[in-house]
Protein: Transferase hexapeptide repeat family protein
Amino acid sequence: MIYSFNGFIPVVHESAFVHPQATVTGNVIIGRNVYIGPGAAIRGDWGQIIIEDNCNVQENCTVHMFPGTTTRLKEMAHIGHGAIIHGATVGRNVLVGMNAVLMDRVEIGDECIIGALSFIKADEVIPPRSLVVGNPHKIIRQVSDDMLRWKTEGTHVYMQLPADLHATLQPCEPLREVPADRQVQQASYQTWNERKTES
Structure:
């Protein structure tokens, strides 16, 4: 669902994928290969939202702002299920974990990882490459090279998703039984703990 508001029409690059059950309103700019999942609310009614190339905003996220401000997700920002970004700037190649909350005028430096359920209060500045957890948030260490590679690989999986969805997503009726020849999906990515175990 794409809506104009107060004279502003969202701009969505043709390679991006906005799920039909997401809502994009008003002064929003969405770049190349961006994935916007179902239930996401990208609400550019009181200010601007810029989602740069290769970002993903997953299911049930909210992106909004205090009136007259800009919310920006820089290239390859990875916003996990249920997160809220309210008037923050999220740096390049950052991971924001599931159900994390970033408040007004927060600045997240490049290559940070924000843990699931973290809360970052208004006006906080998080230095680049910080690993952040907790409510209230705490910087516990620097993001290692291996952890950053893991994050980047995960974002590359999401960067491919828009093209795959454009090519194959379609409404359908459900099957009533599991077919005997139902194919098995191949794992394309590992959790951080699985990766550490194999290292």
Remarks:
- The first strand starts at residue 2 and ends at 3.
- The chain has a mean pLDDT of 95.
